[in-house]
Amino acid sequence: MTKDQLLVVTGGNRGIGKQIALSAVDAGWRVAISFGHNPQLAHQMVADSNGRMKAFELDVANPDSITKFFASIENEMGSPRALVTAAGVDKGPRSIAEIDHEFVHLTMVVNVVGLILCCREFAAYAIKEGGGGVVVNLSSMAATIGGREYKSVYAASKGAVDVFTIGAAKELAPHGISMFSVRPGVTRTDMTGDALANPVTKAAIEASIACGKVAEPADIATPVIELISGKFSYASGSLLNLGGGGFVI
């Protein structure tokens, strides 16, 4: 895809999504990011972007908010050519015996239902415009092993992301829309900051990764930027492991 195309990054104001948004601007994209409960981070990113980025409110658990989010982007920035679904939630460890409805429901509503509805909105605009596009859904290495200890619900939500991506790739291929799922392992972000600040926990995590270290946000953003470039359209439906060589069990 040519430079100056529009990328939408849900969850683009923090963590991996933030790095993807920043890397995309560096690569020549215009970028629309979402913000939820912390608009200050998004607005600072916009202020620093030289006019290449705008921020829009989004509650990925609210279908009406998703529709409004994409409509606002279309109205203010035009039709997007790529989407990265980085918005997600990790409610932490919970044993099967202690799982309740709210815990499961929130995880699935955000990580699965919200993601699918974002893909729906993007696909509708891309089909209307007729120029194709690329979607990269953020999954997790957790989907490959059922998650770390007490993380089976989170892993299940990411497994659903992978399966949806494979199915959507087949349906959307005739419209020139490519679908990918990327599976980061443990990555150094604000969400993992507490765990990685504990030397014992950090050592245990690193010992479970083949390369012996956790990912930096740029380790995830770099291949994502390549995927949205359009150069890998024939690989649509692929699942990309970004886990430092895989789990050591």
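the 2nd protein, sequnce then structure:
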Amino acid sequence: MALIEIENLTVTFTANGRQVRAVQGVSLKVEERQSFGLVGESGSGKSTILRAICGLAPVTGGTIRIGGKPLADPRGKAFSAQVQMVFQDPYASLHPRHTVDRVLSEPLAIHGLPGTDQRIEQALSDVGLPAAFRFRFPHQLSGGQRQRVAIARALMLQPDILLLDEPTSALDASVQAETLNLLSRLRAERGLTFLMVSHDLAVIDHMCDRVLVMQHGQAVEELSRETLAAARMTTAYARALFAASADRMLDP
């Protein structure tokens, strides 16, 4: 049984008096400990799928199941203990007036978990940050350091699933590679399952076992890592997306 199952998902927004289908009939399955990628241009609906899983976007059709069970609405503590999300912009996702200590301790306090000091120090160590960073504010950290704090926060409740929404796109190229390697290591060490969004097939190729290509809110083509690496796409859109990513990889 897949850990994440999405069947015929539709997400519809109302904008300027008209309905907009951001996601249209998308289905996918993510096995336990697998890393699954969603890739496509801006507006393809890939991030909306992550938001729908978290209850942040209106599901107007289809079903989402975690561990074989339909999600409760609204999502509760049991969901947040199992599923956490890492957002694109590490500065926007951290409260500017909260120290790293407060950012990391809040999930523990909400869930009534003991051992705050030990858990925070271990979390910082796990993401490669020294304990001295505990009482710093976000503006005192680099972009890569802020994203490491965001990843540490997502891991505080020891979830099974991480939803990753363009987790490196706001970072410099060298820091992107470090962050992706960190995520890969954490997945291996903790047996995590990833559902990861990116506009860049090169990132997905590095991180994911399978990938779903999306366009205009619809699923275009699902690829294995091997098919992606060999550029054996069957649709023109997937081939064009791969070519664009290959060009970016060749840029100086």
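The longest helix spans residues 173-190. The chain has nine helices and ten strands.
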